[in-house]
Amino acid sequence: MSAITPEIVAEHGLKPDEYDRIVKAMGREPNITELGIFSVMWSEHCSYKSSRRHLRKLPTEAPWVICGPGENAGIIDIGDGQAAIFKMESHNHPSFIEPYQGAATGVGGILRDVFTMGARPVANLNALRFGSPDHPKTRHLLSGVVAGIGGYGNCVGVPTIGGECDFHPAYNGNILVNAMTVGIADTDKIFYSAAAGIGNPVIYVGSKTGRDGIHGATMASAEFGENSEEKRPTVQVGDPFTEKLLIEACLELMATDAIVAIQDMGAAGLTSSSVEMGSKGEVGIELDLDNVPQRETGMTPYEMMLSESQERMLMVLKPGREAEAMAIFRKWDLDFAVIGKVTDTRHLVLKHKGEIVADIPLGPLVDDAPNYDRPHEETEKQDVLGPDAFTAPESNADALRELLATPDLASKRWIYEQYDHMVMGDTIGRPGGDAGVVRVHGTQKALAITTDCTPRYCKADPVEGGRQAVAETWRNITATGAIPLAITNCLNFGNPEKPIIMGQFVGCLEGMAEACLALDYPVISGNVSLYNETNGQAILPTPAIGGVGILPNYDQRASISFAAEGETIVLIGDTEGHLGQSLYARELCGREDGAPPPVNLSAERRNGDLVRGLIMNGVATSCHDVSGGGLLVAIADMAMASRIGAVLDYDRGGVPSYAFLFGEDQGRYVLTTNNPELVLEQAAVDGVTASVIGVTGGATLKISEFDSISVAELTQVHEGWLPAYMAIP
Amino acid sequence: MKPAVIVFPASNCDRDAAVAIEKICGVKPFMVWHGDSTLPDVDLIVIPGGFSFGDYLRCGAMAARSPVMREVVDRANKGTPVLGICNGFQVLTEAGLLPGALMMNSHLKFVCKDVALKVESNQSMFTSAYQTGEVVKYTVAHHEGNYFADDATLDQIEQNGQVAFRYLDNPNGARNDIAGIFNKERNVLGLMPHPERMIERDLGGDDGARMFESLVASL
Q: Where are the domains of chain B?
């Protein structure tokens, strides 16, 4: 073994003091294999060394939470002995380097996190951020990422039912690809990763191990420089066909009682899976690397342990059940190998060609990982800007037409039509609405699922932005009539070693925690992606939230599509015309300053509970939350979805019309009803602001007596932008 | 009625097809593994959608050479109705049960959306519950649905009345807007759109249900 030099330590992304910790943990100098294992386990990606202490502040408990953060995915009870298992994960760095494979393997990885726990995946979603549309790479990255997500998800046969996609120059050098999977399991058939039973066999299943993806986790824990393209060899290659077989084989084996513990091989592959299983079970793991199925000859222990080849799983079986398990994996044409056993040493021991090539105490490897309290600096508060700070448009109709064709608001049909969103035959709320809705197969229940974040708010005020991201998912779920239950997240930020970035992180988490508490909406899983910077330029702080809610009876639900002509349109919530950080301000006034709209969490809850009740008892016939672009964009969305126009007639209470129509005040919904008296009465009882603002009908959106625009024209501009943009070679 | 659904590695609409059959035809189909070389005694064989063998090599090419397909071809030639949906259509062309081939969509992208289809003929056991000329709504979800046949074959298909469904707004570049075709005897139907995804209003429509109702009526 070569001696470990400071250069080798640095190449592994370890700081000198971190290396000293390793020597202390080992009680001696590590060899190169051991160093490699420490380096990935102590990478930001695997160890959460900058974020751990702050993540603890998030509320993670509720009576319906079966398993919070710490396992492969979080689990909630959805009644009748069933559980929803879900998580969201980032694949930002690899997707920038190689968009198709980066995004595809992101989907593959998150699917494995969910079916590892015994769930059949039933829905995929994603949250995507790209650089400016004018940036020369954006088209290439967008088309590659979308094709990769589709290529993987479509093949495994899990519908991709929703997501979001924004553009901002801050993502020019670091796009964000966050993928979420939701699965369903029986509560008595959930599988965890803690190894147990001294002497039990450790089994490797799935694809063979190759030299791909070595140091992927380390790459994902560093900033990009000029030569990031040179990191292409660290990106893994996905094989959705094998993944599909792996899902079916694992679920088939899980129907028996042969499995003691199971863990997928994600970032840091065989290393992280064996370390997790051993440390969680407080046992040791001994692996004979000669038995690892290998795609290439001459692989060293170092390469095998650090490979991130995809579609692999590690499990511990009950003794004597190997033959039964092997028969299932053989039927699905997958590799199956006994590669080790559970020991009582609490060490990870690796053997190769008859020699011990690594012997690491698991306690120190996990517990002594660095845990930094990095300096953090609060973002300076921005002024609250009144409507007068922004110029009024020539006409509100023209402003609406212009806004609907801007990148963030334009229809994303070009994207979601490349995803199979109907496979499995349970999608009853397709992409394009507030939340995707899938039925729980064979029941009257359905899950409403959404991903949201408004990074421009987070940049301007991290705490407010954190609150808003959580609240917006809650609102989107509520707008379908579902009861929001829990969230997962993907916390995408820049370099945490910079106090201002660390301050954004801490601030967003503070806001998220407040919102989760106020809305009884705990965090049950998540992922942190730091160092999203290129040449010192950080992304906007982007704590993407994935929310899941339940419709107890999917017959009682709403969509954003106006249900019929002649129905009354009601606005729920307070409107003060807050234009700071709005899309109106950015897109039509060229301004990105000012404080974002505040989120009043108690009003949020009151308003949402009222709206959900009105949907459940059939009083609200359609519903849409008011978010980016404001009220008029929300109404236009409903009109375009139904091809039914509306005549607006509202009391703006002294707020200038453009601020009333385009302000992004929070906690608001638009709904339609045949019984406006009942809605207003109920709102008054609940202390919620509600006002009639118009009537549905006709083929135009009549904003005022002299200002209207046809729904067909709105649809044309709204649907037109993305296909036209992507058509340019 | 005694239906069977063939399951290949990475079929992914096998359950959807089974659910549709059970819901509309009232019978649970046999799920037959591709590696089996025998088929139970059935009166309908469904080759479901998906990505059999990952669509590696060429869509449907490897599935068409699965052990069970020898038996499927034999039964089809003896008159047993065979329905191939999406990847199943690709398998049927690769197995030689239907003419032509499915190429990559002309726009080179996967496409998932509702499509309007014209029912070209209700003179078959798959389409008897429709009116000839009726326009129905199904869903497509494919990357290789661009139907191709050479001029002579295409002429023959048209003359024989083998076109079952035509797109009103062609989503993939298929020749003559062909969405689905029969064999000459009309006991084999292959189509790219998914009838099994349109079996109830909650899913966006129930036009697909009538294909299964047609089969119930004739079997």
A: 3-218
